Amino acid sequence: MMVALSELQDFQHHPMPKEPIADRKILTRRELGRMLTAIGLLGPASHSIFAQLVTGASKVKAGAGQLQSKLEIASSNAKLVEVFEWARTQAMAYTFDQNDPVGPWYEAVEPGREAFCIRDTCHQALGAHMLGLARCNLNMLRRFAEHLSDSKDWCSYWEIDRFNRPAPVDYKDDAEFWYNLPSNFDLVDCCYRMYVWTGDPAYIEDPMLLNLYDRTVNDYVERWGLDIDHIMTRPRLLNVRGIFDAKKKFPKNRGIPGYNEGDHSYILGFDVLASQRAAYLAYAHIQQVRQNATLAATFLGKAAAVEKLLRETWWNKTDQCFYARLNKDHQLEGRSGRGSGTTQTLDWNAEGISDTPGFPRADDTNAVAARLLDLSHARLEYPEISFTRVGDIVSDIMGVNLQFTSPLLSSVEGNWVEVTVKTLSGLGSTIDWAEIRNLPIRACEVSIRHDGNSRTTFTNQRGPALIWRAFFDGRHQSLLVNGQPVKAAVEADDRGRSLSSVRVTVGAGGTVSVETGKG
Questions:
Q1: Residue 364 in contact with residue 104, Cβ under 8 Å?
Q2: Is 116 helix (H, G, I), strand (E, B) or coil?
Q3: Do 300 and 153 belong to one domain?
Q4: Residues with Cβ < 8 Å from 506, sequence gap 6 or more?
């Protein structure tokens, strides 16, 4: 985020500048935060003014020396381009690779703290990767792994600043600090997802990261009473040091059993179980890559046990949703925001902690696109908004996702590759066409264009050959690959929707188009 210097000099009288800010001297967000703090404008009383200053898609411009992203979008829909370009520029303004002691990083916490916390980092990492910030992701995730310790009951620091220190607002010492229990699970899942997208061997070989994975699914689970035999009967607080004093900040927040920080009574949040399942699956897949078949099978079983608990115990048949939490009386209550109708959606994301209905149905493409292109209700100065908006536009509107397949299956699958690129247009009926360019996928950069919901063109701009599965709504006997009919595979997604696809190889520098033949 940038703001003109002249605005600060007369800020109290003229909070919103009338002339274009690109025409005046620009401050970085860090410089702005320091100046606002120095003159007493950055505080609870002035937060609404600060939010006004940085909110608005048209008010963010790239500053001199700011890191740039190669990721681009083009579309028939001007709003899609505007929102994407705002999110890209805003996210890159929060990115720093200028020899800070912590190493390359981006802001992922409350604005103004010059730091990154576990929850926001894990939510922002996919968008960051797409923007070309894989180096930041690996460094930040390693920093969390570095600070895991027995003295903190196998927690890390919840929040790390640019000097590689625990943020003092969240940490006093190893006995007194703030920590949300889904955090370790989110870290394991995030590291696995970044391995899938980058192929970086550090994620499966680095001793510090391997220690994070091993400690989390074993020692951390045991220390905090999160194993399948005790998780539903655990007390809210565990590992209390000394005499408990509810008046102090940290004792009641050292091991919050969810991301809901306002309720100090509940025993367990849905998000702990959902993220735990994701972590077990991630750990199993990492072990598959490492050729540890027995260990992988063990944790696939543990993930299945958590899933069974969620589907059979946490599913509210009356309201057709998952419960949000286990209350102080060990009774299930609330709405998690996951699932609708008879669909029990367990894919974990930020909306899983909410008591609201959350995202619109994934198959309601018009509603998904409308939500992502609406910035009117978002807290735009919060770094998570811009990073996740980039990730969601690529994943949901452009429908680009990666499918991992275990190398342990290579002996039984002659066409085995570790990662396949999947696309399914999310343009709906409101966007005629859209194209994403310079998207990093492992050693490649690709561009993907959707023409409505009936034609997709994939270009492997740089890197080795890869496998692409082009999906389309509905049942089709065949799809046209570069104009030639190819038998389609038909399957149902987790909502029962029929999808048809073909699997094609896209060589280095190659372009392939797939269409339904129904314009």
A1: no
A2: strand
A3: yes
A4: 446, 458, 459, 460, 465, 466, 467, 468, 512
Q: Quick one: tokens of 511?
A: 């372009």
Which uninterrupted H or E stretch holds 254? Answer: strand 254-256
155 and 274: one domain? yes
Q: Look at residue 256 and give its three-state secondary structure.
A: strand
Q: Is the dihedral of CA 335, 340, 344, 349 positive or negative?
A: negative
DSSP state of 63: P
Among 54, 73, 90, give the residue marking a domain's end: 54
Residue 174 sits in a domain whose CATH number is 1.50.10.10
Does the predicted TM-score (pTM) go above 0.90?
no
Output the tens digit of pLDDT for each of the chain's 519 residues: 333 333 333 222 222 222 232 332 334 444 444 444 443 434 433 333 333 334 344 456 666 567 899 999 999 999 999 999 999 999 999 999 888 999 999 999 998 899 999 999 999 999 999 999 999 999 999 999 999 999 999 999 999 999 999 999 999 999 999 999 999 999 999 999 999 999 999 999 999 999 999 999 999 999 999 999 999 999 999 998 888 888 888 989 999 999 999 999 999 999 999 999 999 999 999 999 999 999 999 999 999 999 999 999 999 999 999 999 999 999 999 998 655 444 566 664 433 332 333 445 667 899 999 999 999 988 899 999 999 999 999 999 999 999 999 999 887 776 789 999 999 999 999 999 999 999 999 999 999 999 999 999 999 999 999 999 999 999 999 999 999 999 999 999 877 889 999 999 999 999 999 999 865
Which of 202, 47, 190 lies closest to 116, judged by CA? 190
Decide if 287 is inside a domain: yes
DSSP letters for 410-460: TTT-TT--SEEEEEE---TTT-SEEEEEEEEETTEEEEEEEETTTEEEEEE
Considering only CA atoms, which of 211, 213, 210, 240 is closest in space to residue 225? Answer: 240
